[in-house]
Structure formats: structure tokens, C-alpha cells
Design goal:
With 334 residues, the chain is an alpha/beta fold. It has 13 helices and 11 strands. Helices cover 45% and strands 16% of the residues. Bound molecules: coenzyme A.
Length: 334
């Protein structure tokens, strides 16, 4: 699918402040093509991890230049010892032995994440060939939450008819409790601001303002109350974030329906940030819109980390990877 004007605008934004992004899956041709496209467009400085000879051969076969791209084979890197040491120091209290640290540092996802921790790169995009858990775990262990008391979660930028929305969480927190759900909503609102999207947040449910009952509905109601309470704090002053729930999708997106079902809602049928009650709902909904609704879907993008590490869907195209790199650059610019 062609990239929307919105994603093109993110690419331009990334070009204004060049960041260094690691792509650890150098064995994947889509990743190699994306690295070429990103470098040609000067969207980011790219480091590819993988077999240097195979990557050079692939570039030569396609008549692409590797001149502005750094290629590192972790096993041959002079930095391997430094990264092993760093990993060991960070994780020894958790029971990691030096031998285990040596083995893990050779894993491309760990090596790339350690590059960020050491300040040798600004962000990483992986997951074309790895599960979400394999991509996310090193980031959770090494980069860690920006706010200690708040879980890292994820979002998708969904573009429908050139209009961007934030969907969260569709990729990490499987069954958030009320506090975690409130945190996801607040972090997603901050994400929306970072990406120039209005922070009008709908806490989604199968119920609107008490129209249905049950523990699932009550969880969303409690989370909404917690998030609204947090908005009163100094931290959120002047950010103009609007959060309301519990809302069904039609009330969140349609002013007419909202006026009937939730007449006093601040969201007013204009939600741009959609918060799902659990990962089943979020993941199913984004994929349905992507496959049947012809929406562009970028993510899962992690939010709430100290530095950006982002995941790809294993069905991604080279263009999807380019979009994910642009998004990662904007997060790194924060
Ligand atoms: C993200 C995920 C991989 C973490 O689970 P895990 O690997 O079992 O991680 P653990 O529970 O062992 O935790 C590892 C570390 O990360 C931390 N952590 C786990 N989830 C976290 C979160 N959401 N935010 C911040 N830290 C988190 C743990 O506290 C732990 O830290 P520590 O080792 O320093 O004490 C897991 O939540 C998961 O599998 N989510 C679903 C992902 C998925 O399959 N998505 C598919 C749709 S795209």
C-alpha cells in the first residue's frame, strides 16, 4: 500500500535531525532494502547487524551503495567485550552469570539494545524475523521504563483516509489491571502529542456509560477515573488531554452517536486515541482494520521506555520498516 501523506510528513520530520538506528536483522532482505531506502532518502543513519560478507554481496547484486551504512557482525565487533560487561553489570543482581552475558551479547537483539544503552545508537527496529517477546524483552531488561512505576506498553499509528489515530495497547500488556490501563491511556496521550495528533482519548468497552454491566466494564470505569485524576496533577497541566470512558467505538468516533449515548462526554465523538481493555481487543481490532479496512498500520511501537526500541510485524514490507524507522527517529528526538 502507498504511504499516506501523514507518514511521508513523519519521514520529512525525521530527516531534519538525523538519528542513528540499528536494524539487527541483517539476514532479512526486506530489512536490507529498507536500510537502502532510508539511507538514500537520508531519513536516518543506519547500522545493520549481520554477516558482513552476505550483506555486501546482496548490496552489490542490487547495485546499492553501502557507503553510508555501517555493517557490524557482533561476533567480530571490538565493542563485544564492552557490551558483555555492560549487560553483566546491569543484570548480575538478577542472577545473570558472566558466561550467560557473553552468550546473550552475541544475540543481535541484545547487541543492538546494548548499543543504545551504551550511547552508540539512538534507537532500534527489529521483529521482521523475531516474535514481539524476543524484541521487547531485551529492551525491558536493559533500557527500562522511563517512569519506574509505569508499565511499558505499545501503540500503533493507524492511518485511515490520511487521518492518523493512536491505538493502544495492541502489542505488549496482555491483560492490564485498572492502574495499568490508566497508565496506558496517559502514555498514549503523551505519544499522540509527540506525533502531532490531538490527545482526545477514548477508553473503549462494549458498554457506554453504564449501558452494560460486568467486571470488564467496571475495570474500564475505574481506569478512566484513575486517568482523569492523574490529569489534575502538575505533570499534565496545560497539555489539554481529554480522556473519557467507558465508551463503545461508535460513541468514541461519531458525534451523533456520542450525543445520544454519552451526551456530556468530553470526547464528543472525536477520539483520536483509542485505548483497548486488553491485548485481545487491541490486537484483533488493528489487524482487522489493516486487512479489511485498508488502514495503514505502523507498530507495535513501544512507549514509556527510556529510549526507543520498536517491533515489526513478521508480515511487514520494506516500506513498513521505513515507516517504523521514521517513527523511531521522532521518538529519539524527544
Ligand atoms: C512483553 C513481554 C514479552 C514481557 O514478558 P517476559 O519476557 O515474560 O518478561 P518478564 O516477565 O520475564 O520480565 C522481564 C523484565 O521486564 C520487565 N517487564 C515485563 N513487562 C514489562 C512492562 N510492560 N513494562 C516494564 N517492564 C516490564 C519485568 O519487570 C522484568 O524486569 P527485571 O527482569 O529487570 O525484573 C510479555 O508481556 C509478552 O509476551 N507480551 C505479549 C507480547 C506479544 O506476544 N504480543 C503479540 C502481539 S504484537
Amino acid at each position: 500500500m502507498a504511504q499516506s501523506e501523514y507518514i511521508k510528513s513523519l519521514l520529512q520530520k525525521a530527516q531534519q535531525n538525523l538519528k542513528t538506528i540499528v536494524l539487527p536483522e541483517g539476514e532479512d532482505e526486506r530489512v536490507l532494502e529498507a536500510a537502502h531506502l532510508i539511507t538514500e532518502a537520508k531519513t536516518a543513519k543506519i547500522i545493520i547487524l549481520g554477516d558482513t560478507k552476505k550483506i555486501a554481496d546482496f548490496y552489490a547484486k542490487n547495485n546499492w551503495s553501502l557507503y553510508d551504512i555501517e555493517v557490524i557482525n557482533p561476533a567480530d565487533s571490538p565493542q563485544l567485550g564492552k557490551y558483555t560487561e555492560l549487560l553483566y553489570e546491569l543484570r548480575k543482581a538478577k542472577g545473570l552469570s558472566y558466561e550467560e552475558a557473553q552468550k546473550l551479547a552475541l544475540n543481535n537483539n541484545y547487541f543492538g539494545t546494548l548499543m543504545i544503552k551504551a550511547g552508540d545508537a539512538d534507537g532500534m527496529v527489529s521483529g521482521a524475523n523475531h516474535s514481539t517477546a524476543d524484541t521487547v524483552r531485551p529492551a525491558l531488561q536493559i533500557i527500562k521504563s522511563a517512569k519506574k512505576e509505569r508499565a511499558v506498553s505499545s501503540f500503533f499509528i493507524m492511518v485511515s483516509q490520511n487521518k492518523p489515530y493512536i491505538f493502544s495497547d495492541c502489542g505488549v500488556v496482555i491483560n492490564p489491571n485498572d492502574k495499568e490501563l490508566a497508565d496506558i491511556a496517559l502514555t498514549a496521550a503523551e505519544t499522540a502529542i509527540m506525533f502531532g495528533i490531538e490527545p482526545t482519548v477514548a477508553m473503549l468497552s462494549f458498554s457506554t456509560k453504564g449501558s452494560a454491566k460486568g467486571e470488564e466494564v467496571e475495570k474500564v470505569q475505574r481506569a478512566t477515573a484513575l486517568a482523569k485524576q492523574a490529569l489534575q496533577s502538575e505533570e499534565y497541566r496545560g497539555m489539554n488531554i481529554k480522556i473519557d470512558g467507558e465508551l463503545q467505538v461508535d460513541a468514541a468516533l461519531d458525534a451523533g452517536v456520542c450525543a445520544k449515548k454519552a451526551p456530556n462526554s468530553e470526547v464528543d465523538g472525536k477520539a483520536r486515541v483509542m485505548i483497548f481493555p486488553n491485548l485481545d481487543a487491541g490486537n484483533i481490532c488493528y489487524k482487522m482494520l489493516q486487512r479489511l479496512g485498508r488502514c495503514e498500520a505502523y507498530g507495535p511501537i513501544l512507549q514509556g521506555l527510556n529510549a526507543p526500541v520498536n517491533d515489526l510485524s513478521r508480515g511487514c514490507s520494506a516500506e513498513d520498516i521505513v515507516g517504523a524507522v521514521a517513527i523511531t527517529c521522532i521518538q529519539a528526538n524527544k
